[in-house]
Amino acid sequence: MSTHSIPKGTRDFNAIEMARRNYIFDTIRSVFKLYGYVPIETPAMENLSTLLGKYGDEGDKLLFKVINSGDYLGGVDEKVLVAKDSARLLKDISEKGLRYDLTVPFARFVVQHRNEVVFPFKRYQIQPVWRADRPQKGRYREFYQCDVDVIGTASLLNEVELVRITDEIFTRLGIKVLVKMNNRKILSGIAEIIGEADKIIDITVAIDKLDKIGIDGVNKELSEKGLSESTIDKLQPILNLGGSNREKLEKLKVVLTSSAIGIKGIEEITTIFAYLDHLGLSTQVQLDLTLARGLNYYTGAIIEVKAKDVEMGSISGGGRYDDLTGIFGMPGVSGVGISFGADRIYDVLNELNLFPSETEQATKVMVANFGDKEEIAGLKFLQTLQQSGIPSEMFPEPSKMKKQFGYADSKKIPYIVIIGSNEVESGIFQLKNMLTGEQELLSPEKIIEKLK
Q1: Is 256 helix (H, G, I), strand (E, B) or coil?
Q2: For residue 317, what pLDDT is reported?
Q3: What confidence tens digit (pLDDT) does each residue in 92-137 have?
Q4: Half-sphere exposure of 255 (CA within 13 A, CB side)
Q5: Where in the chain is CATH 3.30.930.10?
Q6: Is the pLDDT of residue 330 over 70?
Q7: What's the CA gap between 279 and 440, in Å, rounded?
Q8: Best label site of 102, 148, 150, 445, fewest CB within 10 Å?
Q9: Predicted confidence (pLDDT) per residue in 56-102, tens digit
Q10: Measured between alpha carbons, how far is 133 from 135 in angstroms, rounded to an integer?
Q11: How many helices (H) and strands (E) would you count in the chain?
Q12: How far is it, in rounded angstroms, from Cα 247 to Cα 224?
């Protein structure tokens, strides 16, 4: 076995995989552009001061830190080294980290470029992120996110638009999904009425794991965080609330009557559902009170998308953040966004065999090579094909037809143009369909017309 390998949780991608990934990126990008979003990019590395404290304690642990250049241990106090205090040592040897997501760098970008952007600012970003997580199915240490955010407006029409974008993307990809929604204000209201308002972060982090560790696991974690047994008991009916979206909201109104923030959350999500009811989306949208999304910066609506036909975690998620830019010195700017996990979407499409066959065709037609005069005629026609916008290539050396056909077949090239001595003289070429085996004599103009 080769000693040269890649780090766990990362992957190489071959030509077919890249073609499929680009199909996902192109589909998502086209929808983002359709809704008026513009692209930006941010560096792979951010200052740790930008990243730390934005994702909660668990998120901070998953940040990849970058060691300072040069003699990074030169200025470190000997006592720190002897004490083996990694947290204290980190401050002296690392100032940067790989980005954990695209939302926090986006907030930093908005603050840094506030005089250049027009608000509301609608941006999309398709770039890799890194998390020091335990690699497993559907979870990687390096993966791509496809984010779309609008910042500078608190209008709930933006949440509605994000659901529409989600519906459009997954309809185009052919994936049946369920969109789950909740509101952080509702969760704050729940924490308030059970008498644990100061433990909202602990509660949301725990219940966000319900799908992974089950209700008993969630209750155990809540107990470990200091919630009493009676308090945890009060939470159970809410976590298990059933019925339609409207029925759940009506029951919640009664439960959260004494919580102003809880009622505000109910009003917001009721408004969003009312808008969606008029749009006739093909995607089901469901109120899920166990949905918390563990990121600290969410303040309003939260969204998670799950594939219906594949056992996998969420393939998309996001929410409203009212003051993320405030951390960087620009308070009071509300934003909302959603992120599409390209790698998990890839796994879903692959498992369900939903990739269109044409995504694997980089070349549409190959010009066969017979050498001498035929080669010159083939080269000239290749140039014409490419100038006509038809992806094409010429076999690089004169070879037996069996070898050239084998090459085209292995690359899934659907057509071959054959230009032998007779074809050079007549100016009429043979076009072979590799799928059907059909072969016909056509003028160069007719071949281009047919291929287009």
Answers
A1: coil
A2: 95
A3: 888 999 999 999 999 999 999 999 999 999 999 999 999 998 888 7
A4: 26
A5: 15-39+114-351
A6: yes
A7: 50
A8: 445
A9: 788 888 999 999 888 888 777 777 777 777 777 878 888 999 999 99
A10: 6
A11: 18, 16
A12: 33
Both tokens assigned to 43: 């560096």
Report DSSP letters for 191-245, one per residue.
HHHTT-GGGHHHHHHHHTTHHHHHHHHHHHHHHHTT--HHHHHHHHHHHT--S-H
197: left (phi > 0), else alpha (psi -120 to 50), else beta? alpha
The pLDDT of residue 1:
47
Closest CA to 392 of 380, 403, 383, 404: 383
List every span in the chain annotated with CATH 3.40.50.800.
Answer: 362-451
CA 21 – CA 359 distance, rounded (Å): 9
Cβ contact 120:151 at 8 Å: yes
Q: Identify whether the C-beta of residue 79 lies closer than 8 Å to the C-beta of residue 104.
A: no
Task: Please state the separation of Cα 252 from the chain's center in Å.
Answer: 32
Task: Please provide the CATH number assigned to the domain covering 362-451.
Answer: 3.40.50.800
Could you tell me the two tokens for 420?
């032998």
Give CA–CA dist 121/132, Å, rounded.
31
How far, in Å, are 50, 189, 241, 287 from residue 290 at the CA level? 29, 14, 9, 9
- Specify whether the CB–CB gap between 1 and 322 falls below 8 A: no
Q: Residue 383: phi, psi to the nearest 5?
A: -60, -40
Q: What is the mean pLDDT of residues 239-260?
A: 89
Given a contact cutoff of 8 angstroms between Cβ atoms, the answer to whether 37 and 124 are in contact is: yes
Residue type, 239: L
Percent of the chain with pLDDT over 90: 66
Residues in the chain, overall count:
452
Smallest CA-to-CA distance from 26 within 157, 137, 124 is with 124
Q: Residue 393: left if φ>0, alpha if ψ -120 to 50, beta else—which one? A: beta
**Type of residue at 426:** S
What is the distance between the alpha carbons of residues 228 and 233, in angstroms, rounded to a whole number? 9
Which tokens in the block code for residue 15?
């030509």
**pLDDT class for 212, splitting at 50, 70, 90?**
confident
**229, pLDDT greater than 90:** no
- The residue type at 341: G
Q: Which residues of 406-420 are buried (b: 16+ CB within 10 A; e: fewer)?
A: ebbeebbbbbbbbbb
pLDDT at 207 over 80: no
The CATH architecture assigned to 15-39+114-351 reads: 2-Layer Sandwich (3.30)
